[in-house]
Structure formats: structure tokens, C-alpha cells
Amino acid sequence: MKELLQQPEYVHALLVPALTHALPFAALGLIAALIARRRAAIVLALALVFVSAAAVWPAVHYGHLGYDRVEEMADQNGDAWLTIHRHRADDNQWVFYTTAAVALAALLLPLKWPRSALPLALLAVIAALGASGIASYIAYAGGKIRHREFRTGPPPPAELKEAQQDKD
């Protein structure tokens, strides 16, 4: 286990499903809890949205730490996809932080202002669904780095050029 933690690209790969899988399911759970109108279920779903959205911090952190190692393993097209993947993650991580903040607000503010519970929970659903879409967008490029079988062509030239400019 200790060896695994010394390889940040693997830690990154273990954290990403929290963003691509757990977050959309937490959003669906929140929708179901809102329909059922059960406060305990809403609180649980909001906590899951918060934790899965907040997982972006360690995912991005370990992604940056493992960038050079993955760059060495990737072929030329994979390297281009890696650049795009990093660019997408860096540009869009704020969406996950915002989602986590909204979910936390939806958990805490109703303790003081009970009437804010429904609007904040609905806002958290919208934010979680949006963040789930962004996670798919980022993961799409990430999946093409080392998996040639998923590549249908080279990365988009305009996006690659923009990502490379930001990298320099």
C-alpha cells in the first residue's frame, strides 16, 4: 500500500471515480431524497455530494504530481491528450469547489434558516449535475492518454494549442 501512495498517478486514478461516478449518483440520490421529502435522506445525499465534489482537490493535486511520470509513459498523441486533460482539469476545478460549497451551505444554513433548505438543495442538485458533466468532459481526455483503443483521432488542434500555451 505504501508503494502505491508513492506513485501519485495511481492515487489520481483511484480518486477520479469519486468525481465521475460517485458525484452523479449522489445527485440522483439527492433528487430521490427531495422527491421523498425525507430530511435524513437529503442530509445524507448532500453529504455525499459534498465529499465527492471535494475529492477534486486531491485528484488535481495527485494529477499534477504524477504528470511527468505519465508524460514519459505516453506516446505523442497520448502526450497531447495529457496536456488537454490537465488543461481541462485546471480550468474547471472551480466547478467542483463551488458544488462542494453549495452542498455544505445546503447542509448548514437550514439549521439557522429552515426555509432555505429546499432552494439550497435544488441548487446543489443543479451544481452536482453540472459538475458531473464537467467531470465527464475532463475524463474523456484522460481516458485517451494511455488507451489507444479509445482514440478516434488526434486531439482537437485548437484546444491543444490553447492548452500548450497555458502550459508554457
Question: Can you describe this structure?
Answer:
The chain has 168 residues and is an all-alpha fold. It has one domain (9-150). 84% of the residues lie in helices and 0% in strands. It contains seven helices and no strands. The protein has helices at residues 2-5, 8-36, 39-54, 56-73, 76-112, 117-142, 157-167. Helix 2 runs antiparallel to helix 4 (56-73) and helix 5 (76-112) crosses helix 7. The longest helix is centred in the middle third of the chain and has 37 residues, at 76-112. The chain starts with a helix and ends with a helix. The model has no long low-confidence stretch (mean pLDDT 90).
Instruction: Report how far apart the termini are.
Output: 35 Å
User: Major beta sheet, specifics?
Assistant: none
How much strand content do the residues show? Answer: under 5%
What is the domain tally? 1
User: What's the β-strand tally?
Assistant: 0
The low-confidence runs, each spanning 5 or more residues with pLDDT under 50, are none
Entry keywords:
single chain; 168 residues; mainly alpha; 84% helix; elongated
Task: Please describe the topology of this protein.
Elements: H1 2-5, H2 8-36, H3 39-54, H4 56-73, H5 76-112, H6 117-142, H7 157-167
Question: What's the gist of this structure?
Answer:
84% of the residues lie in helices and 0% in strands. The protein is mainly alpha-helical.
